[in-house]
Amino acid sequence: MEIKSLIASVLPFVLGSLYAVYNYHQVHLGYLILFFIASSLFHMATNANDNYQDFLHAPRDAANQEFLEDTNVVGANQISIKQARTLTFGLGGISLILGIWLVTQTGLPLLWMGIYSYAVGYFYAGGPKPISSGPFGEFFSGFTMGFMIFWISVYINTYDVAPITWQSTLNVLVSAGLAIFAISNIMLANNICDMDEDIALGRHTIVSYFGKPVMLQVFAWSYIVGYICLMVAVWIGVLPKLSLLTLLSVIPVLKNTRQFMHKQVKRETFILAIKNASIICLSFVVFMGLGLIF
């Protein structure tokens, strides 16, 4: 279930909660805890589904034998299809029950946010045309985890005091921009490292369309755009000024980005994208939290 990747959903959850406190001065702690449990369970269900679907649909030929037996967790650990399916839909089912109950307490907007998120979670690797096998995987991963989790955290805390408007949604989107781009770069780094394997498995990600050199530039510039979103959010007054200290994370992020652009090997340098996302989001949480205190 790739527990280490939970950082991609936990930190946007915390950021959204801090945003609600800063702008609306309230938290519904009980609902927030339930949402944290539901989103974490669904994140694990989505990761399990990715591995399960990849194993299920990978071509059974000599070229993919290493992927089936050594790379994919289902084959490498000799997990049966039934076990994988039970785990995936069991986690997703518990998450769904919690989510539906939260809808009954907070209102229909959460239902539409949830339908979108669950659809992306399943069709990311499932269905006849999985999102992860096409050119839009980075967008959906970054937008869904970086923005939707952030936005739902805001909504659950403010549903009874602040209606959803285009302006409020735009403010949340800009505030979540740094997390969106940092998380989408995890997927992009994965696809850059796996380009040859993906092509062998019949996947045509954005890297196969534009090539590694172009997408490496996109990888680097995505961080810059994210930092610009942070500065804009502070400028319009929806993030505390101390959040700007998150810019200090540029130093380790730049170092890791240069290292990744020099060498793209899944087992050696893909972890750098996860480190960057962790450094960025954790710094964001710390300095936004200090902004709330001071």
TrEMBL record:
It is a multi-pass membrane protein. The keyword Transcription does not apply. The chain crosses the membrane at residues 30-48, 86-104, 110-127, 139-158, 170-193, 214-236, 270-293. This is Prenyltransferase. It is found in: Membrane. Pathway: Quinol/quinone metabolism; menaquinone biosynthesis. It holds the Pfam family UbiA. CDD domains: PT_UbiA_UBIAD1 (cd13962). Its main location: membrane. Keywords: Membrane, Menaquinone biosynthesis, Transferase, Transmembrane, Transmembrane helix. It comes from Lactiplantibacillus daoliensis.
